[in-house]
């Protein structure tokens, strides 16, 4: 089975305190720790496990700049055979639709049975997988947390409310967005990274993909982020201050009063 | 002005809470326009749900088809493309079904897609101005969408006040005959119910809830010690379940359990909306987090900026001494 997995390099929100730059038009990017989008990592792991079982190969693709190459290499160190970097100045400022159409152009140049994306990324939009499927006119399932290969079909589980799971049969080719928890992504050591360090990763731009540059990037975007600002969300918590001992004393008083101690 | 519609989720004949939240959002976009509810399903449950929202919406379109007796976003998408006017604005809850349905629908309708919004600032010409959150809720953004050829807008559940005015009183129109071909290449098989766990956290009065800040499986024991000293149960955020450190039945959130404790201790939890979406009944929330800017401090009653791995053992000791 030929599997394409769409991945993205994102600031790691678990490791970083996200701040806004002085112009308010972007987050402060100096000193940020970047990594591969959490959900994508599960998607790549799942693709590798499927190929281990039924044969085929895994290609990881990203729309980004030169620095995005590092996440392709990381996922290749995990076990993806091929990487593909879609990069062009014309792609900058693309909205979800722009990104999906760039990916769709790359998909059409290949021959993939299955396309995986993460359920969502740093902007929390959860849009690229569903858009990509619609553009390719293939079936889609989001928030997938189990995949079973059955000949030319897949049996997939979609996560729904309350920890329940909806099961579907889906024809290939198809696009699935992957939810965390589907597997345990393998650890990637320094040795693995070194192994793929010198592998050539092909790059494609708008003209290679046959994309009209005015339909992507900032020009083609119907949805635009104007600025960032710190959320105002009411008063917020009463922060307990003082020595640890004082804080604990105050907290215990609160817990007693609110029925938090039995 | 474009027509505005709201996609109604419902279960066993009862409209979801989001039904009246979408109405508030719709009125913020087009203050004077009539708003139409779209209710898809089958049989008596559909009729009940449609009548349920008719008091609130100016009009209700019901779409009755056996294909919609189970959750089928693929078929719903096909039907909606045929039923809705091309340049309309459709509001959909940003939940499990909405995420499955909406992005592809926007492409098929050639509309703008505006995901997971938390507020509407208004409409200027064809520009819809909304507010979104990024980076797990750490920062907000003003977003402008060109809706000249329509829009699908996903609304975050729980952020808009439900419109309880019941000022609609609309008729229910049957659109079942207009869906066209809704055959799909994805077939629904069954719904697998969540497994019950060791404890039923939905019944707990006091919860010690553990997040990714616990850092390591071995540290979970420390949190159980605190819970024991307090007479509380242990719950958790999703990454703890994904890592298989605790069982799924202990997960609080939209894809886990809805809890209604008196006291909720969030330890090393950032406070994402999917997590907080499972915390109901207005409990007293205590948050301990080493990042003073974590979104959890906006919703907690009491906050402590500390490393849980240092703070929790000391707290446990003091409680034991009582
Ligand atoms: C469709 C969908 C459904 C989802 N459903 C759920 C759900 O039901 N439940 C759920 O929880 N999530 C759910 N999620 C995931 C959710 O978006 C978040 O990713 C998740 O809640 C984050 O969990 P967390 O707060 O424990 O981890 P993080 O967001 O990584 O936060 C960890 C926090 O711990 C702090 N910290 C780190 N180390 C320490 C320390 N030593 N001491 C103190 N603080 C520390 C950090 O500052 C940070 O604030 C869902 C996501 C999607 C897309």
- Our count of helices of chain B gives 9
Q: Biggest interface, which chains?
A: A-B, 80 and 99 residues
Hetero compounds: flavin-adenine dinucleotide
- Residues in helix, % of chain B: 25-40%
Query: Major β-sheet of chain B, in short?
Result: 9 strands, mixed
Order of strands across the main sheet of chain B: 9-8-7-10-6-1-4-5-11
- What percent strand of chain A? 25-35%
Biggest sheet: strand arrangement of chain A: 9-8-7-10-6-1-4-5-11
Order of helices and strands of chain B: EEEHEHEHEHEEEEEEEHEHEHEHEH
Output the radius of gyration of chain A. Answer: 21 Å
Question: In terms of topology, how is this protein built?
Answer:
The complex is a heterodimer of chains A (262) and B (322).
Chain A: E1 2-6, E2 9-11, E3 34-36, H1 38-54, E4 57-63, H2 69-78, E5 82-86, H3 96-109, E6 114-118, H4 128-136, E7 140-150, E8 153-159, E9 165-171, E10 174-178, H5 190-196, E11 203-204, H6 206-209, H7 217-220, E12 223-229, E13 238-239, H8 244-258
Helix pairs in contact in A: 2-5, 3-4
Chain B: E1 4-8, E2 10-11, E3 14-15, H1 18-29, E4 35-41, H2 43-54, E5 59-64, H3 73-83, E6 89-93, H4 96-108, E7 112-124, E8 127-134, E9 139-146, E10 151-155, E11 171-174, E12 186-192, E13 206-210, H5 220-230, E14 233-236, H6 238-242, E15 263-267, H7 273-276, E16 284-289, H8 296-299, E17 302-305, H9 308-321
Parallel strand pairs in B: 1-4, 1-6, 4-5, 5-11, 6-10, 7-10, 13-14, 13-15, 15-16, 16-17
Antiparallel strand pairs in B: 2-3, 7-8, 8-9
Helix pairs in contact in B: 3-4, 5-9
Describe the overall structure.
The complex is a heterodimer of chains A (262) and B (322). In chain A, strands 9-8-7-10-6-1-4-5-11 form a nine-stranded mixed beta sheet, with helices on both faces. Chain A has a two-stranded antiparallel sheet with strand order 2-3. Helix content of chain A is 31%, strand content 26%. Chain A starts with a strand and ends with a helix. In chain A, helix 2 (69-78) crosses helix 5 and helix 3 packs across helix 4. The mean pLDDT of chain A is 95. The radius of gyration of chain A is 21 Å and the shape is globular. By secondary structure, chain A is of the alpha/beta class. The longest helix of chain A is centred in the N-terminal third of the chain and has 17 residues, at 38-54. By secondary structure, chain B is α/β, with parallel strands linked by helices. The longest helix of chain B has 14 residues, at 308-321. Chain B is elongated. Chain B starts with a strand and ends with a helix. The model of chain B has no long low-confidence stretch (mean pLDDT 97). Classes of the chains: A alpha/beta (262), B alpha/beta (322). At the A-B interface, helix 3, helix 4, strand 7, strand 8 and strand 9 of A face helix 3, helix 4, strand 7, strand 8 and strand 9 of B. Strand 9 (165-171) of chain A pairs antiparallel with strand 12 of chain B, so a sheet runs across the interface. Bound molecules: flavin-adenine dinucleotide. Flavin-adenine dinucleotide sits between chains B (136, 211-213, 215, 237-239, 251-256, 268-270, 272, 274-275, 278, 288-291, 294, 307-309) and A (14, 119-120, 143). Flavin-adenine dinucleotide (FAD) sits between chains B (136, 211-213, 215, 237-239, 251-256, 268-270, 272, 274-275, 278, 288-291, 294, 307-309) and A (14, 119-120, 143).
């Amino acid at each position: 089975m030929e599997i394409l997995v769409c991945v993205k390099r994102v600031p790691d929100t678990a490791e970083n305190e996200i701040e806004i730059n002085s112009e308010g038009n972007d987050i402060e990017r100096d000193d940020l720790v970047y990594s591969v989008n959490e959900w994508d990592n599960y998607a790549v792991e799942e693709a590798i496990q499927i190929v281990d079982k039924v044969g085929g190969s895994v290609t990881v693709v990203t729309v980004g700049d030169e620095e995005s190459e590092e996440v392709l290499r990381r996922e290749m160190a995990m076990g993806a055979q091929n990487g593909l970097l879609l990069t062009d100045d014309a792609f900058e400022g693309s909205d979800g639709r722009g990104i999906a159409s760039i990916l769709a152009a790359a998909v059409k140049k290949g021959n993939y049975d299955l396309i995986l994306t993460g359920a969502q990324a740093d902007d929390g939009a959860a849009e690229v997988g569903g858009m990509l499927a619609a553009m390719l006119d293939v079936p889609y399932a989001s928030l997938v947390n189990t995949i079973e290969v059955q000949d030319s079909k897949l049996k997939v589980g979609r996560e729904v409310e309350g920890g329940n799971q909806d099961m579907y049969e889906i024809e290939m080719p198809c696009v699935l967005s992957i939810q965390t928890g589907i597997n345990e992504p393998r650890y990637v050591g320094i040795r693995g990274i070194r192994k793929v360090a010198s592998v050539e990763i092909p790059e494609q731009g708008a003209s290679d993909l046959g994309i009209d540059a005015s339909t992507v990037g900032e020009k083609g975007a119907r949805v635009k982020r104007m600025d960032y600002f710190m959320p105002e969300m009411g008063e917020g918590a009463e922060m307990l201050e003082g020595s640890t001992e004082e804080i604990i004393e105050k907290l215990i008083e609160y817990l007693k009063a609110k029925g938090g101690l039995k | 002005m474009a027509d505005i519609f709201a996609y109604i989720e419902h279960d066993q004949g009862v409209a979801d809470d989001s039904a009246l939240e979408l109405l508030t959002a719709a009125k913020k976009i087009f203050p004077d326009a009539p708003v139409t509810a779209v209710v898809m399903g089958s049989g008596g449950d559909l009729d009940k749900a449609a009548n349920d929202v008719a008091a609130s919406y100016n009009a209700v379109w019901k779409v009755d088809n056996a294909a919609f007796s189970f959750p089928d976003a693929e078929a719903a998408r096909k039907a909606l493309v045929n039923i809705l006017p091309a340049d309309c604005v459709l509001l959909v809850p940003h939940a499990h079904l909405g995420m499955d349905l909406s992005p592809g629908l926007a492409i098929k309708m050639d509309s703008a897609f505006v995901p997971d919004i938390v507020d509407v600032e208004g409409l200027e010409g064809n520009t819809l101005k909304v507010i979104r959150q990024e980076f797990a809720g750490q920062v907000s953004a003003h977003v402008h969408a060109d809706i000249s050829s329509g829009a699908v807008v996903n609304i975050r559940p729980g952020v808009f006040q439900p419109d309880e005015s019941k000022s609609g009183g609309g008729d229910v129109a049957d659109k079942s005959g207009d869906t066209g071909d809704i055959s799909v290449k994805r077939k629904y098989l069954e719904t697998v119910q969540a497994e019950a766990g060791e404890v039923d956290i939905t019944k707990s009065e006091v919860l010690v809830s553990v997040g990714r800040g616990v850092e390591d499986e071995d540290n979970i024991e420390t949190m159980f010690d605190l819970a024991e000293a307090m007479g509380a149960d242990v719950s958790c955020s999703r990454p703890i379940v994904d890592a298989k450190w605790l069982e799924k039945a202990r997960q609080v959130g939209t894809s886990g359990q809805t809890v209604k404790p008196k006291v909720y201790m969030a330890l090393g939890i950032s406070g994402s909306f999917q997590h907080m979406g499972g915390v109901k009944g207005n409990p007293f929330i205590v948050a301990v987090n080493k990042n003073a800017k974590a979104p959890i401090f906006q919703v907690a009653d009491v906050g402590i900026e500390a490393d849980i791995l240092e703070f929790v053992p000391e707290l446990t000791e003091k409680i034991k001494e009582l």
